[in-house]
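Input/output pair, single chain:
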Amino acid sequence: MEPFTAGLISLEDAQQKMLQQLTPISDSLNVSLFEAAGRITAKPILSPLDVPSFDNSAMDGYALHLADIAPDRVLPVAGKAFAGAPFNGAWPAGSVIRIMTGAPIPAGCDAVVMQEQTEQRDGGIVITAPVQAAQNIRRIGEDIQAGKQVLDAGVRLGAAELPLLASLGIAEVSVLRKLRVAIFSTGDELQAVGQPLAEGQIYDTNRFTVALMLNKLGCEVIDLGVIADDQAALRTAFTEADRQADVVISTGGVSVGEADFTRAMLEELGAITFWKLAIKPGKPFAFGRLANSWFCGLPGNPVSAAVTFYQLVQPLLATLTGQTTRIMPLRQRARATQRLKKSPGRLDFQRAIVSRGDDGVLEVRSTGAQGSHVFSSFALANCFVVLERDRGDVEPGEWVEIEAFNTLLEG
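Output:
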C-alpha cells in the first residue's frame, strides 16, 4: 500500500464504527396520510379490515353454477352484477349472471368464466372452455386479513406504501418526528449563493447541496450559514448547533491546513471517532460526538462533500430514524467501454453513465474529468463506478462494479 494511504480507515470500517454507536430516535406523532410522504413509521401498522372485504370477480365474465354446465348448452343471462351494484335478485337454476371485475360474487356462485371463453347464442351464452370450481373468484381476506401486519416499523412511506394504507381506509399514521440536522460551512473564502463574489471568493455550494439532500431525506434543516475561520465563531456555532440538533454537519475545515479549526474544535467540545478515510474523493471526513448530537465534518471540495454525504451521512441518518428499508442500491457488474484512470491506495468512486449495450450487457463510461472540484460530473452521471482500493487503471472491456444512484441523487 502507498505510504500516504497507510493508516487511512476503510469505508466499511468507517460505516461500522459510525452505525454501531447510534440509537434511533423514538419520539413519534400522528399525521394524516396526506402529510406522511417521506416519513418513517413509528410502529407496525395492522390492517383494520379484510382485503378483499367480500368475495368478488377477478374477470369480466359470467357467474355460474357448475351443475348447470353441459356441452353446447345455452345458459340464459338472469341478471347483472357490477362493482358497487351487486346482483341481489332471484337466480334461477340453469342460468348465469353477467358480472364485471370487482363485482360481489352472487350467493351460490361456484365459479366465474371469463367472457372470452363464452359464445353468444340466441337466448344466452355457451361455455367454450373447461371450468374449475372457484376460478376467477377473489376470496374475502385473500390479499390481506384483518389484524395482519401490512407495514413494519421503520418503513419510509412513499408511492408504494401510502396507496396501500389508503386502500385500507387508514387516514392517520404514527410516524417518527423529523430528524433535526444543523448545517454550517466554514471558510473566509465562501460567499452565499446569489451574492456577488469579491476577489478570491467562491460560492458556498456545499451547504446548498447538503440542505437539498437533507430536505429530500425528510430532515428538519437548521441552517447556521457560513462561519468565519475563527475559533470563537466556530465555538459559538458548534455550541448552538449542538443545542438544537440531533446531527451537526459542517463542510470544510477538516483537512490538514493551518486554518482548519473545525477538527480542533471538535476535539475540544466532543470526541473524534475518525477523520481520515481511504476513499477518493473524500479522504478528510470527520465523525464524532458532541454533548447532545452526532457530528459529521464533510470535506470542502464539492464532489468530496457529496460523495461522503451519500456514502456515510445518508446511512447514518437512516439509522437514526430507525429506517429498516434498504436505502443503498445493490452493486452490479458492468463492462467498461473506455480506460478509467486509477491509482492504488484508496477506494475510488468515479462518476459515470451506465447503459445497456447491444448484447444486453451493462456498459459504463466515465463522465470525464473526476477532480473533486468538478461537480458537473454529478449532473451528467447516473451511477458510481466503485474501483477497489488496490486496483489500478481499468482498460476497455474490463469488468467493474457500479452502484446506480438512488433517489437522493436522481432527478
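The mean pLDDT is 91. The longest helix spans residues 302-320.
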